[in-house]
């Protein structure tokens, strides 16, 4: 990364495919790993990874990992741990633990054994434990990746509440563009360790071949075939700009090239647009302006046609 600047008091979403560098970036921002080159600045001060000041910084910036591990004690004792090692008085600790468990919707589980919780409940307790450090910044690595819908909704509410009511800056990684749009004030896309353009969303593996007419064809996952403009051959990665993909209930509206039939499986509001997720053998996101969406009369579960213009496809 040549330069990355993050504003205080905001929610930032980090998106990108597996291996893009999202988790590595979080570990560097949590002062757990030193960057291989360049500098990290926090609150206008350069971070010295060779000095003895990292412990104080790690209290200000706390990382909640994707697969959080809790102590095999009670839920309350897990949240109490950061307070106890800071020698917070017991009466005050009990009050704080109760408030934090209330915040994450886990107060009724205070005496439960932490190792018997579900994935979603574990994640909520891990967030409460991180908040017990009273951080300025909380980093969340795929906070809803392995949880059910009920816990996903609860965790998203927690993220919004701690940012809005406590002023804590939140940086979260996710593969879910809809989630990032709902929660984040700003979104950064990472690809191969670099900040990428925002079109990098529908990212798939494929292979460039030449068809009978000599045109370049990308064979993507599940046999998806797309004509592309590229001098490359062999294995590649492709990105399809969701705002450039066209959608219709009728095939006649499109040319033959790169026209796909699929089933509409999800519709979500995304600021001034509607995001449609269509299963064409692989899930493909389409961004539709709201005024256009109203005229399309699309219904969940119905078959639709997509057209991916050659210009919407980028080859890596």
Short précis:
The protein is 27% helix and 30% strand. It is an alpha+beta fold.
What labels would you give this structure?
2 domains; alpha+beta; six-stranded mixed β-sheet; Rossmann fold; elongated; OB fold (Dihydrolipoamide Acetyltransferase, E2P); 30% strand; 316 residues; 18 strands; five-stranded antiparallel β-sheet; 8 helices; 27% helix
Summarize the SSE layout with pairings.
Layout: E1 11-15, H1 22-29, E2 41-42, E3 45-46, H2 54-60, E4 61-64, H3 75-85, H4 90-103, H5 119-131, E5 137-141, H6 149-166, E6 169-174, H7 177-183, E7 186-191, E8 194-196, E9 202-210, E10 216-220, E11 225-227, E12 234-240, E13 246-248, E14 259-270, E15 273-279, E16 283-289, H8 290-296, E17 303-307, E18 313-315
Parallel strand pairs: 1-6, 1-7, 4-5, 5-6
Antiparallel strand pairs: 2-3, 7-8, 9-10, 9-12, 10-11, 12-18, 13-17, 14-15, 14-17, 15-16
Helix pairs in contact: 3-4, 3-5, 4-5, 5-6
What is the CATH architecture annotation of the largest domain?
3-Layer(aba) Sandwich
Helix content: 25-40%
CATH class of the largest domain: Alpha Beta
Please count the helical segments.
8
Biggest sheet descriptor: 6 strands, mixed
Which range does the strand content fall in?
Answer: 25-35%
- Spatial ordering of strands, largest sheet: 4-5-6-1-7-8
CATH superfamily of the largest domain: P-loop containing nucleotide triphosphate hydrolases
Spans where pLDDT lies below 50 across 5 or more residues: none
CATH-derived topology of the largest domain:
Rossmann fold
Question: Radius of gyration from the CA trace?
Answer: 23 Å
- How many domains, as an integer? 2
């Amino acid at each position: 990364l040549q330069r990355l600047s993050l504003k205080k008091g905001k929610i930032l979403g980090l998106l990108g495919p597996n291996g893009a560098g999202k988790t590595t970036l979080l570990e560097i921002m949590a002062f757990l790993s030193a960057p291989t080159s360049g500098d990290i600045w926090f609150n206008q001060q350069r971070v010295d990874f060779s000095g003895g000041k990292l412990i104080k910084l790690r209290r200000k910036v706390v990382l909640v990992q994707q697969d959080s591990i809790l102590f095999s004690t009670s839920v309350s004792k897990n949240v109490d741990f950061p307070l106890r090692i800071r020698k917070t008085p017991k009466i005050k600790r009990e009050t704080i633990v109760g408030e934090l468990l209330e915040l994450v919707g886990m107060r009724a589980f205070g005496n439960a054994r932490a190792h018997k919780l579900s994935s979603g409940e574990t994640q909520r307790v891990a967030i409460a434990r991180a908040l017990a450090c009273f951080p300025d910044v909380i980093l969340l690595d795929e906070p809803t990746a392995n949880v059910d819908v009920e816990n996903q909704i609860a965790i998203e509410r927690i993220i919004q509440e701690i940012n809005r009511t406590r002023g804590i800056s939140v940086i979260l990684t996710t593969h879910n563009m809809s989630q990032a749009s709902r929660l984040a004030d700003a979104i950064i896309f990472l690809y191969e360790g670099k900040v990428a353009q925002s079109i990098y969303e529908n990212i798939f593996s494929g292979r460039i071949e030449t068809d009978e007419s000599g045109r370049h064809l990308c064979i993507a996952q599940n046999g998806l075939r797309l004509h592309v403009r590229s001098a490359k051959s062999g294995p590649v990665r492709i990105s399809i700009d969701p705002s450039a993909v066209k959608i219709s209930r009728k095939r006649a509206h499109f040319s033959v090239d790169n026209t796909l039939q699929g089933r509409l499986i999800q519709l979500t509001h995304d600021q001034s647009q509607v995001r449609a997720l269509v299963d064409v053998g692989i899930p493909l996101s389409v961004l539709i302006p709201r005024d256009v969406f109203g005229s399309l009369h699309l219904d969940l579960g119905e078959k639709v046609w997509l057209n991916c213009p050659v210009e919407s496809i980028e080859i890596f």
